[in-house]
Design goal:
single chain; eight-stranded parallel β-barrel; 11 helices; about 15% strand
């Protein structure tokens, strides 16, 4: 299936009241697993490559091109998205490679500077037909950049969207990045107020720490794009540990990465159902 735009997937889901799963790619195994899970569920999916993942690989192009190629071979709509990019040059490179969605993260800046920088990136991306997500109200747990406990004000969110022209907005409503236990307590009343105040789809970051029932409730309250990374890393790593523990002389990486990839695919299919993505 040809690559689809972030706008096509996210806006159609928002209109229908569905969620869209956005899952992180670190290695090619992740991209293959995420697509396989989406195909099992018969749902669109967003493959995210973060700025931290780019640093891990040393460059965007190798993992970006591989992910784009995997996405183009999918039987369901797949969006390839640059996540939490603070480097403007990285945004430019992603657009040139064919990414159809980017999240520009200027949330560590003062509000006025966040607006200015985000508006400039948004204008560039829109000139190239690329969907733009931004963030206001810091989400905890992200490398010390974000303040735990912060919440997004509906009036400020509405003003930010109007001033920047972004297509989707990540908001702080109680979740936190990098949680390994699913104990986050979301502010569903705030989600509803934000949904009423903001004209673009809402994005929930740090969703690994949110229980299944609350993920469904968040979508019903007004969230559209739901980012999940750490939870799937747990699934992947647990299988690798189990296989190696049962086979201590194993050296063929395919023998433990393959089962881990398959387990992630199964969990992605389940999560997409939880998110009402179909």
């Amino acid at each position: 299936m040809p690559l689809v735009s972030g706008a096509e997937v996210v806006l159609s889901a928002a209109k229908a009241g569905r969620g869209v799963g956005a899952f992180n790619v670190i290695q090619l195994e992740h991209a293959v697993a995420l697509i396989a899970g989406a195909e099992q569920a018969g749902a669109p999916v967003i493959l995210q490559i973060s700025e931290n993942a780019v640093k891990y690989h040393g460059a965007l192009k190798p993992i970006g091109v591989a992910t784009l190629a995997a996405a183009a071979a999918s039987t369901v709509p797949v969006v390839v998205h640059l996540d939490h990019a603070m480097d403007r040059d990285l945004v430019t490179e992603a657009v040139s490679l064919g990414f159809t969605s980017v999240m520009f993260d200027a949330s560590k800046l003062e509000y006025a500077e966040n607006v200015r920088a985000t508006a400039e990136v948004t204008a560039f991306c829109h000139e190239n037909g690329v969907f733009v997500e931004a963030e206001i109200g810091e989400v905890g747990g992200k490398d010390g950049v974000h303040a735990p406990g912060a919440r997004t004000r509906p009036d400020e969110a509405a003003a930010f969207v109007e001033a920047t022209g972004v297509d989707a907005l990540a908001v702080a409503v109680g979740s936190s990045h990098a949680m390994t236990e699913r104990t986050a307590e979301l502010d569903f009343e705030l989600i509803g107020l934000l949904r009423e105040a903001v004209s673009v789809p809402l994005v929930l970051h740090g969703s690994s720490g949110v229980a299944d029932a609350d993920l469904t409730r968040a979508v019903e309250a007004g969230m559209t794009k739901v980012n999940i990374a750490t939870h799937l890393n747990n699934v992947f790593t647990d299988v690798v540990r189990q296989v190696l523990a049962n086979n201590p002389t194993l050296v063929d990486t395919r023998k433990y990465l393959g089962p881990a990839r398959d387990a992630v695919a199964t969990e992605v299919a389940r999560l997409l159902t939880t998110l009402k993505a179909t």
